[in-house]
């Protein structure tokens, strides 16, 4: 059991002996003993403990587990009534099987349960399920979030959800449902062009059901039969430009051209690029090509035109720049609303700056990514965006290719920085 969950004053502590919290914190993580169980039950239900006589309503049990996991973890005990009397369960094997199924199939992301069976001399058996909150936030399969307040669970309202998620900062932000989005927010042409590249969808009836496709085929929407809540991944991949700008403004990319070697120089042009990822990818590349030449082979050295006093256009490897733009779009840490993704084009370099939490990422991970060992924040987005059926025509090779080809073109090593929740990639042009 997760002993650290019981470090609060509401627990009963007998005078003259170690407090419950001290006792539990000093115990190894192993099968729950009857003594531990009795001490937990004696304190009654609170933020970290829920008691059930039996497992009779899987939906409510799912909600309760989600609430514990989203709050700070805790324990479910089956076989105890409201008067804190141990009645035991008659079918422990069935309960264990059902709890495993719930944690695996009804909760997103799936939980790895720790389940103990405690037997008493009277023959009664009790089941204890420990809940570890390792990948918050958790939700039910139909897209509902719950928190625990004292001995009660409450659903997180749509108004509270955005604030709570910003506090939690989940790694899997791409799977967060958008409760204000509808089927009309999606670009059917882009979505069904992607789908039909794999197989003919409803070829006989010629009826396209966006809700069903995103729910059941793409796993990018949740809700019961009468509800449709698409995820962030669905919106940024297949959403309409104007709807993404309204529903998810943090997806904007700022692209700027400066007339010098750094951001202190005069700003020539600035643009905010919004829309789905395919549109952003193409628009950013068009902006870059307005000021730079992208080439496949190593260019010959250019000379300054002394007569016109004009420097030659900066030149970069075509595939390295395409991959750098793709990496920025795909690996953005979407949880941040205040850290914007930027591309700064200077006279001799291009700087890509992306929101990326640095806690736990540097320095080992920043070295490993040079060798293709990635830590993908948005695996669903990356999987779709990288498919040729999506239409982005992303080159292969990742960061190792960017490093190799850029240095081959320019003779200078690409610079990588990770600090203050930002990932920076600076590519130099050919001399």
Question: What would you say this structure looks like, in words?
Answer:
This protein is an alpha+beta fold. A six-stranded mixed β-sheet has the order 12-11-15-16-18-17. Strands 1-2-5-4 form a four-stranded mixed β-sheet, sandwiched between helices. Strands 3-6 form a two-stranded antiparallel sheet. A hairpin with a 3-residue loop joins strand 15 and strand 16. It has 14 helices and 18 strands. Helix content is 32%, strand content 19%. 36% of the residues are buried. It is elongated, with a radius of gyration of 27 Å. The chain starts with 19 loop residues before the first helix and ends with a strand. The protein has three domains: 154 residues, 2-Layer Sandwich (Methyltransferase, Cobalt-precorrin-4 Transmethylase, Domain 2); 73 residues, no CATH class; 179 residues, 2-Layer Sandwich (Heat Shock Protein 90).
In DSSP terms (H or I, runs of 4 or more residues), the helix count works out at: 14
User: Which CATH architecture of the largest domain is right?
Assistant: 2-Layer Sandwich
What's the alpha carbon Rg, rounded to whole Å? 27 Å
User: How does the overall form come out from the CA principal axes?
Assistant: elongated
Adjacency order of strands in the biggest sheet: 12-11-15-16-18-17
Number of E-type strands: 18
- What is the level 1 CATH name of the largest domain? Alpha Beta
């Amino acid at each position: 059991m997760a002993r650290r969950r019981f470090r609060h004053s509401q627990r009963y502590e007998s005078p003259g002996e170690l407090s419950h919290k001290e006792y539990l914190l000093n115990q190894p993580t192993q099968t729950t003993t009857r003594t531990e169980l009795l001490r937990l039950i004696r304190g009654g239900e609170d933020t970290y403990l829920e008691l059930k006589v039996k497992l009779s309503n899987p939906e409510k049990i799912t909600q309760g587990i989600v609430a514990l996991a989203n709050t700070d973890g805790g324990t479910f005990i089956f076989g105890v009534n409201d008067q804190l009397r141990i009645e035991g369960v008659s079918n422990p094997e069935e309960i264990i099987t059902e709890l495993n199924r719930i944690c695996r199939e009804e909760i997103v992301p799936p939980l790895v349960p720790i389940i103990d069976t405690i037997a008493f001399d009277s023959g009664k058996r009790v089941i204890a399920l420990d809940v570890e909150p390792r990948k918050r936030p958790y939700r039910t399969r139909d897209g509902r979030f719950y928190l625990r307040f004292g001995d009660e669970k409450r659903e997180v309202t749509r108004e509270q959800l955005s604030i709570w998620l910003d506090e939690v900062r989940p790694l899997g932000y791409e799977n967060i449902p958008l409760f204000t989005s509808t089927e009309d927010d999606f670009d059917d042409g882009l979505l069904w062009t992607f789908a039909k590249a794999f197989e003919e969808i409803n070829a006989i009836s010629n009826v396209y059901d966006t809700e069903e496709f995103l729910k059941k085929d793409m796993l990018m929407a949740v809700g019961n039969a009468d509800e449709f809540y698409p995820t962030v991944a669905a919106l940024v991949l297949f959403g309409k430009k104007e709807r993404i700008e309204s529903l998810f403004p943090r997806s904007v990319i700022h692209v700027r051209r400066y007339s010098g070697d750094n951001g202190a120089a005069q700003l020539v042009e600035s643009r905010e690029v919004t829309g789905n990822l395919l549109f952003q990818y193409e628009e950013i590349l068009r902006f870059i090509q307005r000021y730079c030449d992208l080439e496949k082979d190593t260019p010959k050295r250019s000379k300054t035109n002394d007569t016109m006093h004009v420097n030659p256009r900066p030149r970069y490897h075509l595939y390295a720049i395409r991959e750098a733009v793709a990496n920025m779009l795909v690996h953005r840490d979407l949880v941040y609303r205040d850290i914007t993704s930027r591309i700064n084009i200077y006279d001799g370099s291009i700087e890509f700056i992306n929101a990326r939490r640095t806690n736990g990422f540097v320095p080992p991970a920043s070295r490993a990514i040079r060798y293709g060992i990635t830590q993908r924040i948005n695996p669903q987005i990356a999987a779709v965006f990288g498919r040729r059926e999506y239409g982005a025509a992303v080159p292969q090779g990742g960061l190792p290719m960017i490093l190799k080809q850029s240095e081959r073109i320019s003779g200078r090593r690409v610079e990588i920085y990770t600090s203050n929740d930002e990932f920076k990639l600076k590519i130099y042009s050919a001399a």
